[in-house]
Amino acid sequence: MKGLEREWLLLQQQYESYERLSLSIKVVAVIVTALLYGFQIAYGAIFVVLLLLIDCMLKTFQQRLESRLLTVEQFIQNNSQQGGFRLYLEWQNQPRGLSVLLHQYLRAAVRPTQAVIYLLLLIFWGLVQVQWF
Fold this sequence. Notes:
Blueprint: H1 3-35, H2 41-77, H3 87-92, H4 98-109, H5 112-129
Helix pairs in contact: 1-2, 1-5, 2-4, 2-5
């Protein structure tokens, strides 16, 4: 197996492990919402927002791997062995700063697969607050 193919395989495995961890965080959010059902909205809603933030950080890490995976796939498709093993070099060359990081977190938060579960849980907590449940 060539270097780029090994790199792709390793990155893909790590990418999928982030996906499993993200799913676990979402399951915890649902379980905690169910357990905190009888408590005030502040406890449940704050906890859901905290889990959303943690999940967004995780998804931002995952996005960095995704960018590198796409680059490696392009190299493999072009039968080029140049450019292998540059995950951190490419990450280091990206723009940095608090605003860039916050933008990445926000982009992760608004992805449909990310936002739907948390939005539903926050709507639930809002309905609990107005005593619809």
